[in-house]
Amino acid sequence: MRSLRRSMQIVFQDPFSSLNPRLTVERIVEEPLLAHEKATRQERSEKVAEALTMVGLLPEHRKRFPHEFSGGQRQRIGIARALVLHPQFVVADEPVSALDVSVQAQVLNLLVRLQRQLNLSYLFISHDLGVIRYISHRVAVMYLGRIVELAPVERLYAEPHHPYTQALLSAVPVPNPRRSRDRIILKGDVPSPIDPPSGCHFHPRCPRRLAVCDQDVPDNREVAAGHWVACHLY
Questions:
Q1: Are residues 156 and 90 located together in one domain of the fold?
Q2: Is 171 found in the same domain as 125?
Q3: Is residue 208 located within the same domain as residue 125?
Q4: Are 114 and 11 within one domain?
Q5: What angle, rounded to 10 degrees, do the helices at 25-36 and 71-83 form?
Q6: Chain-wide mean pLDDT for the chain?
Q7: What confidence category does residue 41 fall into, taking pLDDT thresholds of 50, 70 and 90?
Q8: Which residues contact 130 (CB under 8 A, 6 or more apart)?
Q9: Where does residue 197 rank: exposed (0-12), middle (13-18), buried (19+ CB within 10 A)?
């Protein structure tokens, strides 16, 4: 696993708690190098400067501490730490949810640019459906720990099949006061993930449930090219 970990890194949700306040930026960003590479101090310093430049910060920022930066800058430091090893796969765990909207756009554009520049694959986790549509190529919709629908991003937003996906997308605000959207209001509360319902986990709240839904777990079925749905309706 150690040899594999250097090609997989993570960007955490909260840039305020994910950086050690007692370490300088240089020490934070070079930590993966200390764990995974045999390099001299000078080589590590050069790679840290390269990573900071790559995310839009200045090399001289490396001697500062996290409290001297804004939230957006701290998240850039977290991204630099994740990319300093040049990984192939990055888990982005709600990386913009703790940031202001204007800063969110800057960080998202940075992530898109780095993906193209470094040929990265992201697993981008978010509750913001607008952000998901902007950054993703494929989208997996989850309910109580299970993937209920998986499709290319434009197809999923144009033709959602699973009742939960349909309800989820119906809640997205339309940025036009003259347009309205038919909301699908789900009844009941989300069950406990510790003790989920039998069969399809969504059946207690599903407006289209069948008799089989409360007994059998639905299989994933490919309803179109690359579009998979776990639902007895299909």
A1: no
A2: no
A3: no
A4: yes
A5: 20
A6: 93
A7: very high
A8: 172
A9: middle
DSSP assignments along 149-170, one per residue? EEEEHHHHHHS--SHHHHHHHH
124 and 162 share one domain: no
The one-letter amino acid at 180: S
End residue of a domain, out of 135, 158, 191: 135
In eight-state DSSP terms, residue 178 is: T
Q: Which of 209, 210, 233 is nearest to 221 (CA)?
A: 233
110 vs 19, 80, 115, 157, 168, CA distance in Å?
19, 11, 9, 24, 27
Rg (CA), the chain: 21
**Beta strands of the chain (E only): which ranges?**
8-11, 89-93, 121-125, 138-143, 146-152, 220-224, 227-230
Q: What is the domain count for the chain?
A: 2
169, 157 in Cβ contact below 8 A?
yes
* CA dist., res. 114 & res. 111, Å (int): 5
pLDDT given for residue 101 in this prediction: 87
Q: Count of residues for the chain?
A: 234
| pLDDT tens for each residue of 128-180 | 999 999 999 999 999 999 999 999 999 999 999 999 999 999 988 888 888 77
Identify the bridge partners of residue 220 per DSSP, sorted by sequence position.
230
Round to whole Å and give the CA distance between 202 and 93.
24
Q: Is residue 220 a contact partner of residue 228, using CB atoms and an 8 Å limit?
A: yes
Q: Of the candidates 92, 112, 135, which is a domain's last residue? A: 135
Q: Summarize pLDDT for 62-75 with one digit per residue, the tens.
A: 999 999 999 999 99
